[in-house]
Specification:
The structure is a homodimer of 593-residue chains. Chain A has 593 residues and is α+β, with helices and mostly antiparallel strands. Among the domains of chain A are: 144 residues, Orthogonal Bundle (Butyryl-Coa Dehydrogenase, subunit A, domain 1); 127 residues, Butyryl-CoA Dehydrogenase, subunit A, domain 2; 143 residues, no CATH class. Chain A has 18 helices and twelve strands. In chain A, strands 3, 4, 5, 6, 7, 10, 11 and 12 form an eight-stranded mixed sheet that branches. In chain A, strands 1-2 form a two-stranded antiparallel sheet. Chain A has a two-stranded antiparallel sheet with strand order 8-9. In chain A, helix 7 runs parallel beside helix 9, helix 12 packs antiparallel against helix 13 and helix 15 packs antiparallel against helix 16. Chain A is globular and about 80 Å long.
């Protein structure tokens, strides 16, 4: 049940697969000292193993309680949160002008994986605070920043994102919470929100809610949504806490997993209206929300990676301890072997590890792109990196959370009957993972975003640029003439060809036959993830081979396994997209007949 | 949350996909009146909807209790069980000489699907009784049969299967429970068993345990195992209940799902030893156990089908009610549409339905083969059918339970955030399904059984015979020249070619390079399921087209979707098997490096 951050794999993924080293060397990270990376991750890993991991099961078993309008978290959680902020972990990537360490998103991404692996229900709280920081920093007034931003960066206060209402889930534009202008320039909010993560808790004195609401004269749909900052306690001029604001948790959900993370129904307006402060401009809330969402989507992808790695570590440990049967060729009267000797168990563990590694690098590459988009001095470099980050975000979110669920599933399977028993913890990973393909935009919505926005932008420019790079990696694999790669080059070559053809096919239809394009969105995203992930693992293997990192055999084998078992699915996925639209769109004959 | 047995789909699958009609017409079912089928299923569906389905959530929420050595089931369960036996449902396929109705296994298979769909935790109890009946009928003495068989057939008493011990899970041969010969010809059992389903409960007066144990002078491993009948209460000569036997539930597991089904640790021998009666001969317990296991494996496959269908029905209902967003082309100010208008949701539902339908027919076809093996008059027909049943059993178990989990996963996804909330019930299906790929032999073990025993038997004779039949179906699809089939024929043709090549590849290695064969077992089983399932759905579509059944459009579309999205994975799976062995068997460099 312990967790050890896989620092070596993470550094290889960051520096070589995701391109952090090259970007630093190209000067896109300014004076960032890349040698810091390992030290930060080592420390983060230590904090996670020592403080967060031991509370993971405690949180699952105790859950949270709502009583008298207050949420109480599990035993040990407020103290762990205190140590979290004291250690400066909340401030890793926060803006330096407000007390943050200003470290790259890429470093924070690796940290997010570590928090999620050790205790995903805990890590979710700062993840949302981070989104809030991003939105406030980008769109808030100087006055609001002065009062709230420093406290959010340090973690003294936490943030929430309040979008969802019963009739407005994926369709945010359908929300009804009302905000009325008050004479003093503030607003009064009335309405109810559901599924609000850490909507209330006992870990901090104050909570800063970021609430989407609609002005009385707002246009219908997404064009009439505004974003408001609504503190749990109002803040006096001297920074001390004032009156309790009219926003209360009125219910908590009974969930499949993430038991330690309170999921609240929030009610505003039972006592005259919650006081809110506008962020950005009126009716521009969707723009601000997307700032929050993009950060959060990458964060959720990293939750998938983290849970996957935790499940893998646990399954690997179990497979080395649990003895059943004997290796092929051993006599029946020799003692039984650990189950890791069985080829089917080896396959399962390799699948878990290679999927996790691929998802990890996709997430890190997304973070590097977002970093370069924010930090590079050259405008063209920035804009291309922004397009890359936008393209990779839905893949990072959806592919990685699918992987988190697949790997947690396999982790239960390796445990056999013990996997179904809650005591082992394998089942908790499986339950906790299940929300990740749903929240921050379901994976179906990520796939639709990939096809209709990210692929379609600029005639697919961001896609073609990425595929060109992948082609270079494949050439290097083939050029290495290393027999240890086996058929890796050929398999990735085939995958890239499938991805290229499928991208073209979709691009031709996204406007002219949108339902045909939409019908293939989900297999297209998987095809994209499998191809990009396979090429990233290959580039890590090449780096390991080149002597700069070591352990070439290990990383070549991992890349090859992925190519032979995951990337190899590309041609089938291509066919599902390009041949499947008619039956998908004709489904009513089956479903409703 | 209601469940409606899909009688029409089930009849098509039974009669046409699984070949019941042809087998009846060929005389293999003796005087069985095939018209009975629909009537039995209608009644079973009614009982399931009225009595069992409403208790599914009650059972999940209340679970079971162990107190003072006695297990209490959830409210309403004992009464439901009483109605179950009164309705004669326990006796559907039991031997007529002991009060059973002697209906074909195929009919019982359809019923098992219905029980599992409506309430899988309930259905598990009679499923195990059925295995016990099978073992006792095949291997028990006349005296034991006289006392116990009738009560088990009627369901007045239930049965358990007691194999597992902490050190002996998949490796049954490692069990240590001891049985000592008593002077009166009975035995005294001492030891502990774990994971015993319905090891104790309050639904019947007595429970008949079937316990594997080892005699003091028994050889090591599986050759030294004997099977014993150990009643909870001894039975007097007049059939009345006598003394409490020394077998007690000493603990119950806290599980991920199946909360209503008690999973007990059973302790024997705290009061001198449990009295047991030998079934079959000493040291022949494995043979008797396989009799129980085969029946149970098909039953577990049907649990996968049942849970899948329940999850599908619930997701379909939700998708028709839940409104979010609008269909492509509708103006933003028109009201929102049910989410079933979105192509990605249509794809998800089609995937759920087509996977469920394919798994259903594979299970039914297994049952038909086992029926013919038991009932046909011609010895060659019987022996070929037995080989077919043996071949299909691991596929029925593993493919169908994988499908059960995939479909339950997708069912949660269709519900969005509501899927993660326990109140909707989608999460319960997901949790309950998770045990099915584990118990009665993990799916990895099924895959190994498929490769090393079922494929390898008689040079692959059973496989070649089945593949020939599938080839005939494909020819008919291609010969139909029906454009509605689209690329179905070609995709199935490619899948069959992959399956044929892969079977040959494995057959060449199963003895000479067993680790290479074992490394590909799991993808091979999936390849097998995807190909067979695709062809079965195509044969159902052909039957529907031929006018004997109706609704051709619906079933052709379903078969085509499966071919285009599931069977199409065959060439990728082939490559995983034939190219992947080196990396699987070289995995230690990655996993342990």
């Amino acid at each position: 049940m312990t967790y050890q951050a896989p620092i070596k794999d993470m550094l290889l993924a960051l520096n070589h697969g995701a391109g952090l080293k090259a970007a630093v060397e190209a000067g896109h990270y300014g004076d960032f000292d890349a040698d810091l990376t390992a030290a930060v991750l080592e420390e983060a890993g230590k904090f996670a193993s020592d403080v967060l991991a031991p509370l993971n099961r405690v949180g699952d078993q105790n859950g949270i309680k709502l009583q008298d309008g207050k949420v109480t978290t599990a035993p040990g959680w407020p103290d762990a949160y205190k140590r979290w902020t004291e250690g400066g972990w909340n401030a890793v990537s926060g803006p330096e002008s407000f007390g943050g360490q200003g470290l790259p998103l890429a470093i924070n991404a690796a940290c997010t994986e570590i928090w999620s692996a050790s205790n995903v229900a805990f890590g979710l709280c700062p993840l949302l605070t981070l989104s809030a920081i991003e939105a406030l920093d980008a769109h808030g007034s100087d006055e609001l920043k002065k009062i709230y931003l420093g406290k959010l960066v340090s973690g003294e206060w936490t943030g929430t994102m309040q979008l969802t209402e019963p009739q407005a889930g994926s369709d945010v534009g359908a929300l009804r919470t009302r905000a009325e202008r008050a004479p003093d320039g503030t607003y009064r909010l009335k309405g109810a929100k559901i599924f609000i993560t850490y909507g209330d808790h006992d870990m901090t004195d104050n909570i800063v809610h970021f609430v989407l609401a609609r002005l009385p004269d707002a246009p219908a749909g997404t064009k009439g949504i505004s974003l408001f900052l609504v503190p749990k306690f109002l803040v006096n001029a001297d920074g001390s806490l004032g009156a309790r604001n009219d926003i209360y948790p009125s219910g908590v959900e009974h969930k499949l997993g993430m038991h330690a993370s309170p999921t609240c129904t929030m009610t505003m307006g039972d006592h005259g209206g919650a006081i809110g402060y506008l962020i950005g401009e009126e009716n521009q809330g969707m723009r601000c929300m997307f700032t929050m969402m993009n950060q959060a989507r990458l964060g959720v992808g990293l939750e998938g990676v983290g849970i996957a790695d935790r499940a893998y570590q646990q399954a690997l440990g179990y497979a080395q301890e649990r003895r059943q049967g004997r290796a092929v060729g051993k006599s029946a009267d020799s003692g039984s072997d650990p189950i890791i000797v069985h080829p089917d168990i080896k396959r399962t563990l390799m699948q878990m590890r290679s999927l996790t590694a691929a998802a990890r690098t996709i997430c890190y590459a997304t973070a590097v792109a977002l970093d370069v988009a924010a930090r590079a001095t050259d405008a063209k470099v920035r804009s291309e990196a922004a397009a890359r980050g936008a393209l990779l975000t839905p893949i990072a979110k959806a592919f990685s959370t699918d992987v988190g669920n697949e790997v947690a599933y396999l982790g239960v399977q390796v445990h056999g009957g013990m996997g179904f028993i809650e005591e082992t913890g394998a089942a908790q990973h499986y339950r906790d993972a299940r929300i990740t393909p749903i929240y921050e935009g379901t994976n179906g919505i990520q796939a639709i975003d990939l096809v209709t926005r990210k692929l379609a932008a600029n005639g697919g420019a961001a896609v073609w640029a990425l595929l060109d790079e992948l082609g270079e990696t494949i050439k290097q694999v083939e050029g290495s003439n290393d027999p240890a790669f086996g058929g890796t080059g050929q398999k990735l070559h085939d995958a890239l060809a499938s991805l290229t053809r499928t991208s073209r096919w979709l691009l031709e239809r996204v406007t002219s036959a949108p339902n045909d394009a939409l019908a293939g969105a989900t297999p297209y995203l998987r095809l994209f993830g499998a191809t990009v992930g396979g090429c990233y693992l290959a580039s890590e293997a090449l780096a390991a081979r080149s002597g700069s990192f070591g352990e070439p055999q290990r990383y070549v084998a991992l890349a090859r396994f992925f190519a032979e078992n995951i990337a190899v699915q590309a041609p089938s996925l291509e066919k599902s997209v390009t041949d499947g639209a008619e039956m998908v769109n004709g489904a009513d004959a089956v479903l409703l007949g």
